[in-house]
Amino acid sequence: MTAVPVVPGCTWYPGYLSAADQASLVATLRDVMRQAPLFQPLMPRTGTPFSVRMTNCGSLGWVSDRAGYRYQPHHPETGMPWPPIPASILAVWEAVSAYPHPPEACLVNWYGPGARMGLHQDRDEEDLAAPVVSLSLGETGLFRIGGTTRGGRTVPVKLASGDVLVFGGAARLAYHGVDRLLPGTSTLLKDGGRINLTLRRVTKPDWAITTRPADTPRLLPHGSRATALPPLVEGRDWLKPALAGCCGQLVAALTGFIRPSTAPAGSSTTAMRPTLGISSGACSTWPPLPVTADTARSRSST
Ligand code: SIN
Ligand code: FE2
User: Fold this and answer.
1) What residue ranges of the chain have pLDDT lower than 70?
2) Whose CA is nearest to atom 6 of ligand 1?
3) I need a surface site. Which of 41, 78, 240, 302 has the fewest CB within 10 A?
């Protein structure tokens, strides 16, 4: 897997998904869209339609209408809960996010001919410690990403079918958008166009986390036991029995990222809950950024 740095905090993985995996993901997404049909988002206040259509999967979905931008647990037209995020999509998050909790939202953007996405920030999430993971299918999109202030220099990236892009840390609140598609660059979608998935963690997880660069293991105090650790990452419960008998240092070396911020001696894992807060001091990979007042989100949809 080739990892291309784009701007600090943003990494591009061109050709992450094989052609076969892309085709099977499109079939999976057709199923998602049968359960949660594409809808036409509107700009807040003005009601101008976006040029992309959208849907979501996950426990929360991003929507936009005259009332504003928000996450909600149900489809705005059917009123039904969003379908769950398919396992093949969760696997991409687990592989590239370096974040120990699952995403809650997978926004599906459908770009037809002429669709674009104006420069904007993804800033409706409570948990800015998690990166945004983007996956592209179909025609190449001329994507660009810059810094955290509007109007700054941007770096263009041609996001082709199967590409994955991760932006977190210093790039978590970076302005980004899609200028246009390059028609005829893919035959994956039978009528052309492009699908982009963005995976986001929306709420702060229950457990404090400490992430670390892979080469600087974060060891637990010598002699601490794996059984004193909180539950491991959701979706990795299979690790727990395997690790329960090992010493804490081995657990830290294997998992490397999760422990309670306060763990009173002898407390059970449930007694430790909730220990909120993201530890940023020890983390050079995804330091949370302050949100400044002048970074109002805006999407243009011409
Ligand atoms: C988005 O920022 O929501 C979509 C980005 C893309 O389509 O690549
Ligand atoms: Fe975005």
Assistant:
1) 207-302
2) 196
3) 302
